Fold this sequence. Notes:
Chain A is an alpha+beta fold. Chain A is 40% helix and 14% strand.
Amino acid sequence: MAYQLTVNGQPHTVDVPEGTPLLWVIRDVIGLHGTKYGCGMALCGCCTVHINGTAMRSCTTAIQNAAGKHVTTLEGLSADGTHPVQVAWQEIDVPQCGYCQAGQMMSASALLAKNPHPTDADIDAAMDGNICRCGTYLRIRKAIHKAAEIAAKQPAKAPAPQA
Amino acid sequence: MTTTMTSTLVSRRSFLRVSVIAGGGMMLACYVEPFEKALAAAQFGPPVTLLPASFITIVPSGEITLMAKNPEIGQGVKVMLPMLIAEELDADWKDVKIEQADLNPNKYGAQIAGGSTATPMNWDPMRQLGAQCRAMLIAAAAENWGVSASECTTTASRVHHAASKRSATYGELSTKAASLPVPDPKTLKLKDPKDYRIIGKNAANPDIKKIVTGKPIFGIDFTTPGMLYANFEKCPVFGGKAVSFNVDEVKAQPGIRHAFIVPPGPDPSALAGGVAIVADSWYQARHARDNVLKVVWDEGPTAKQSTELYNSTAEDLAKKDPGQVLRKDGDVEAAFTGAGVKVVEASYSYPFLSHVPLEPMNCSASFKDGKLELWAPSQIPAGGVGQSAAACGIDPKDITLHLTRIGGGFGRRLTNDYVVEAAYIAKQVGVPIKLLWTREQDMAHDFYRPAGYHNLKGAVDANGKLVAWRNHFVSFGENGRYAQSAGLSGEEFPSRFIPNFSQLSSMMPSGVPMGAMRAPGSNAIAFVMQSFIDELAHAAGKDPVQFRLDMLANQPLPSAPPPPGTPVAFAPVPFDAARMRGVLLDVADRSGWGKTKLPKDTGMGVAFHFSHRGYFAEVAQVQVIKEKQLKVHKVWVSGDIGSVGAINPTAAENISQGAVIEGMSHVMGYEITIEKGRASQSNFHQYPPLRLTQAPREIDVHFVKSDNPPTGLGEPALPPMPPAITNAIFAVTGDRIRSLPIANLGYSWA
């Protein structure tokens, strides 16, 4: 069945069976591999993307529920690594293996879009659905505060297309 | 690294060959004699007689490319090994580009992510490569300028001649240097550590930009034109095989191209029996597997086994005479009946664990004209080549293997079963395939950290001195051979530090696949030993740190010689009490042990462990709310991994903090139980890794430098963490934790 959706500002029409998880549409049909598969049950958060600006687990989002919506993946934060979250992740040297970090950064950027100056408690609440098996949590907390600082120094930008 | 191994590496005949490459630059190659025989004996790859390697390329523009030879699983080796080369090359780090090498042991030597071996195995050889290249660049400059090489110096990718005020860049000298003879490393003096400009300084993760922008760098991200996607369903009972399945129904599903039974391979631990489904997309294969596939399995004998059976068998064995005596000192039984002694008895146990790296098992493979190409996230890729060759009936020489970045290893990817499956399926279907397991398949078909049972009896005398210790260890194995990673050494601490001591063992058979998990053996043994030491400290009325210091002050009894035939690289390294004392005093000092006034519901626990040549002592500050809700507020880690401290401090801190987080997962929630010969847990809701909310606010990591060669860090920071936490629980509540995980005892994170 054909579904239309916008991914990182680009319109796509995909022909997949109803019920196909958005994750596999993004990875294997559209061909963006930044979004990861970890559990398939919305338990680990590796597959987190923004759907109309809200952080969602793409592994349990059926394609029909993403149809007509704006999806942002890690590649959509910026292609050159200049989004405040991407900059902070580099400066703090967050990753170990790096596999979960796409999901971490998408949860973090969704948090910061709604709450530009999160407290530690806000961060804990927003990031609790993202597992890091390597255990980079302390640096994730630090990087989110750093990203908030970086974003605060930047001139206000036009809202992202999906917002 | 033992002293023996270091000297073997240093004295090994090694020389370099230089050849001019396209563009007029130089390529420096290192030829070394094999130390891989030892590795082969430890199943680390096929034996090789001569291993040439090539690591450094300098082009006239000045760019320096260094090959990173080992698999990157998040341990930071992709930058660490090039740092060693660059230091002695005296390169400007800004000029350095790092490239991941494919598998080529004949060129690069051993390519392994395991056993915390990268540093001890490569510390000397990598630095020598850099030093040899630097000497050749100096020789080229000296010849150009008609001066003596001894008058030339280097800094940051330049050669200088101070007297004539001349200097040239490495790029400018590269073509000339490539034509010069390669010096014997024995003639070269390596840097004084005080002159290090790269080692000991933070170096960025070379893949960081690709990670934060979502580039396809992991095994799971690989694609090639015409590729199909595969899933492989194995018998849920370990060792079972497929008899038949509803092939027509499966093939009638959308997108399914192939569906067939794979018989168990020549080595069933490398290729188990199952059903392969190959489709146009992975989700189609998975959908058919989840919703349509019905397999008739021959479950085999393991179907009768369970955790319950193992537990009761272990209890029976503990009452009987031990099967093996691992070590005996003094007269332990007499010491238990000595006048005025206090005797403590306790049984400890821990469960099977699954590794759960976040990137599920996967491998891409292409088989064409008798040749196999693999894109494999493997910790020991040479093993995958050997096993794939055997399973496919081809020559290992006809296999090319590309190393991808790996989404977590933890020892899971030391076993190449998923690589062999991909190879076999690709050969059957004749087009490139990407095999990907589901998370459920990953948890159901691991090579699990073995469960274990320890039955302990210890005694302290009237002065509070530990005088006797007996451990009857019950584990898995048959005919006197332990299952993988299920053994215990007679030398394991506190062995040698107690006058009356016996380490005994018994084993029972099991069909559960077992294997190495981060700090194998140690990750569970430390919990047992360091908890029981705490019990004895309490019985002695001594402070837990002081009691440990007293133990370490004892004159150690002699070490037993390693079993005959032990490869030198894996020979046990004797426990050095002075080094452990160093980290224990450091962590006690930094944590304010015994000096910090804590709230009533909060306490500290301490533990130490020696593994993988590293000495670690850790303190956890834990709050216990309403008896069973835990909050770990802060953790202090002190490690001694040799003379440099951390080679790359940012990565070292990160991986040590990760070890603490992993230890917390072991304590609270990780447990695989076996029922009817299969794993009961299927996904993270039943096997919960620690989450961000539960992580401490602070994990303070410090490296104590000692006059020893640098050693690895992937593993040794983990083992002390579980007992540091459980000892802290005891300090607060008096509840002595003797089995993991503690969620089974009613505990949860606050």
